[in-house]
Amino acid sequence: MPERIELSKGPGKEHILAEAVDFARGALDELTRPESVGEHVGVVVEGDRVLTHCFACLLPGYPGWFWTVTLARIPRSKRPTINEMSLRPGPDAHLAPDWVAWADRLKPSDVQSTDRLPYVESDDRLQAGFEETGEDADQLEDFELGIGRERVLSPKGRDEAFARWYSGEHGPDNQATRSASASCSTCGFLMRMDGSARTVFGVCANEWSPFDGKVVSLDHGCGSHSQTDVPGQKLLWDQTSPVIDEMDLDVLAAE
To answer: What is the distance between the alpha carbons of residues 14 and 24, in angstroms, rounded to a whole number?
Structure first.
């Protein structure tokens, strides 16, 4: 991204280069069309005997940008020479946002099931498998180094996952839970998880539930609870027995 320029209030002691406005404008003919170069708006003093002339840019889509021509001269010489020419943004120019690496701008919602993610060796959500202890550790009767998983969830990774699940649509704060008649903790379709997640989460095993095969909190709920039934529908009117007048006869003509 080009560096923004700040115009100087004056040329300082460098009047020879500051007066070479027409020379600088003529040099821009090799860089752009003359009609894209506007008025001379100022100078930037770069150093001893080095000065940059700035011209307004008239190209569409470049408001606040300047054509710049950097001039220099050798000591005791009045002849300017061109160092460089460029198109540079001013203080009020619109610039593209800073570039963000692909690995930093990628979001979980951008990843499809067939996409392959790069290996991250220093992922702080994971730790070496042999460091896993406590109730979340793999239970192996004959454990030897190298038999278990190479990396497992670290406490930080577990806490982040639990917080993400609980605060999302599979937690208690959603319309499905508010409309449910009972929580998942009392549902026969709930499969409890192992380890520390067992006290908070389970997996739904009801194919008629929108959460089938997904992690849900124990205080989550939906309309597919194993003990839930639809309420009986009320009749629109009271049904009465038909009225029959047995004293009235209809006489039909014989054929």
So the answer is: 15
Spatial separation of the C-alpha atoms in residues 100 and 102, rounded to whole Å = 6
How many Cα atoms within 13 Å fall on the side-chain side of residue 101? Answer: 2
CB distance 173 to 216 below 8 Å? no
Mean pLDDT within 233-244: 73
b/e sequence 55-94, b meaning 16+ C-beta within 10 Å:
bbbbeeebeebbbbbbbbbeeeeeebeeeebebbbbeebe
Residues 82 and 71: their CA atoms lie apart, in Å, by 5
CB atoms within 10 A of CB 187: 24
Closest CA to 39 of 57, 27, 26, 24: 57
> Is 85 strand, coil or helix?
strand
- Judged on CB neighbours under 10 Å (0-12, 13-18, 19+), 222 is buried
| Angle, alpha carbons 122-127-132 (nearest 5°) | 175
Q: Is the pLDDT of residue 234 over 80?
A: no
Helices (H), the chain: 15-18, 21-27, 102-105, 155-167, 175-179
How far CA 2 is from CA of 89, 96, 114, 227, in Å, comes to 7, 10, 38, 66
CA–chain centroid gap for 115, Å, is 17
- Quick check: pTM over 0.90? no
What tokens were used for 141? Answer: 């009767």
Mean pLDDT of 153-159: 88
What is the pLDDT confidence band of residue 250, given thresholds at 50, 70 and 90?
confident
Q: What is the DSSP letter of 199?
A: G
Instruction: Please tell me which residue, 78 or 124, carries the higher pLDDT value.
Output: 78
